[in-house]
Amino acid sequence: MFRLFKTALLASLLSFLSIPIFAVETNQMRPTIAEKMQKVEIESAIKKWQAMRFGLFIHFGAYADLGGIWQGRQIEKLGEQIQRHADISQHDYQKVVKNFNPSNFDADAIVKLAKHAGMRYIVLTTKHHDGFSMFESQHTDFDIVDYTPYKKDLLKALAEATKRHGLKLGLYYSTPDWHFNGPYPERNPSDGKISVFGKVSKANEDFQVAQLEELMTNYGDIVEVFFDMGEPTLEQSKRFREVVKKYQPNALINGRIMNNQGDFLTMPDNHVPDSPITDYPWETPGTFYHTWGYKSWVKGLPLETQITAQVRKLSDIASMGGNFLLNIGPKGDGSILAYEQDVLVGIGKWLDKNSAAIFDTGLNPFLKLDWGQVSTKNKSLYLHIHHWPLGNKLVLPGLVNKVKQVSLLTDSNNKLLFTQQQDDVIIDLTSSKQDPYLTILKLDYHGGLKIVPRHSSVNEKGIIILTGEQATKQEKFGKESYRSMLKDFSRRWYVKVPTAGSYQVKISYKMHFKEKDFILMSPNDELAFSLKGQKGTAENSQVFDGNEETFETTNNVGKNYHSIIGNLHFSAAGIQKVTLKQGQLFELKASTNAFKAQDQRYRAMNIEIDSIELLTPKN
């Protein structure tokens, strides 16, 4: 009663002083000291996680015993989902599990291999969609200790090995569980396949929380928890997060926990973004083939080609600010394929000489470079040459700083000749030795880094021309659902505006739909317009199938369209950003049905830009 009297008295006093009462409410909504400390702890954990940069993903389970073959047939698609793709009954799959005996699994050898590859953490599939646990669980006998002749906790062996050899441990945990509902797992109404996007029942939720408690308390420090698929509710995602953070406050949770409860984004499989991501920490899971679990009949690229591909993917991801989690799939007996070992060893040998360009580096500060990537550290730029330039002349556009020197990262005595012309650095590569996988140059400069973005200028006809090839594609990111990103969500250019004013805009394009809305933006103006495409083109139906990334099918459109769409105003001269975005919102949603119910025209740009012309205003 006295508390109510104090509240009323305070409200009356504030009213008398003409101070809005909502000011008190706003103050009460400010973060508490505990909340501020928690935020600092998470930010610190994120920085440590980002510093690891490169990790080993291990997809291993009873499915590996089948090697991608069921009843004499090679089963297409993902090996770890063979139960789904071959439509194996629960009864038959349990027979497979009962014979699973990975006696050749050598945790120490695997951890040493990862360490030699330059990796700093390992993530193991503790339970995949089949519901089989690769650890000893008190909440089911469908685990590697109780259900198989192996009779040992494989996760425990790996946890102890990572600790011995100085690597960090992460855990993958599947939200779908095809074993939990017995012989009748949930199926897709569209194709009858076992579902990977099913709802989580209350009983299954409780079971998962109980298993997460085991995982968070029995295996030492956990650096990452990688959830995958399913469609948990917001309350379920929150509950999963709470149990992880209760026991492992420094463990980072990926966005596939859904409903904005993750700490970092998981990119689509093997995906590298088109430009650096600054809004979220992120990780790309990568594979050697189109499978994660072992398939005996799948062959990889030639060894040297594969090493090159993975080194360059690591280069791309590091330059864009992400982590790279590269997968291996052990055979059913637990042994590692010689091919996968050789690839990891090859990556490690390259990193032995070039790690300075990958670890503890900053984002690529340049726009699209046709020859490769750039990472930064202190007053140095690391130039990652993916494509050797013709004539041995490498151009770094837009660097204003005076360059001290350029050398090979692997040989600081091999100084390269260079010239600076306006804002371009031109490097002579004639004396440079090419690395078979990826050559890195180290460029040292004076002063604070200053870059002028590559831009389009007025031509002799008084027109600024932006081409589709010049555009930087921007993606949309989020942690609402399994789908962490929407590709090609907007396009960006830089232009050198000679004078302030309104510029008439003409666009030449090919359109994948009959009609669609767009917005063209300058720093201070927006121009909304609609475009029409070739008649008869239809929207493409979307089918979601597990971990496989879904692409928009591009309709075959052979006709170029030209349209004057209006005027775009620039309030000042100089280098300005121009953005083309979509006229309607498309959102990332946890529910597959809700995601698909949106207008699919706006899932991506779905337009091929030939050119955008800006006609300079007449005096």
Structure write-up:
- The chain is α/β, with parallel strands linked by helices.
- It has 3 domains: about 50-355, Glycosidases (TIM Barrel); about 370-445, Golgi alpha-mannosidase II (Immunoglobulin-like, Sandwich), CATH 2.60.40.1180; about 465-615, Jelly Rolls.
- The chain has 12 helices and 27 strands.
- The strands form 6 sheets. It has an 8-stranded parallel β-sheet with strand order 7-6-5-4-1-10-9-8.
- It starts with a helix and ends with a strand.
Shape: globular
Rounded to an integer in angstroms, the radius of gyration calculated over CA atoms is: 27 Å
CATH homologous superfamily classification of the largest domain = Glycosidases
Kindly state the mean pLDDT as a whole number? 90
Q: Output the number of helix runs.
A: 12
The CATH class of the largest domain turns out to be Alpha Beta
Major sheet, described briefly? Answer: 8 strands, parallel
Helix content: 10-25%
CATH-derived topology of the largest domain: TIM Barrel
Strand adjacency order, main sheet: 7-6-5-4-1-10-9-8
Which regions are unreliable across 5 or more consecutive residues at pLDDT < 50? 1-27, 535-558
Distance between the termini: 75 Å
SS content category: alpha/beta
The CATH architecture designation of the largest domain is Alpha-Beta Barrel
Pfam families: Alpha_L_fucos (PF01120)
EC number: 3.2.1.51
Domain Glycoside hydrolase family 29 N-terminal: 32-355
Organism: Colwellia psychrerythraea (Vibrio psychroerythus)
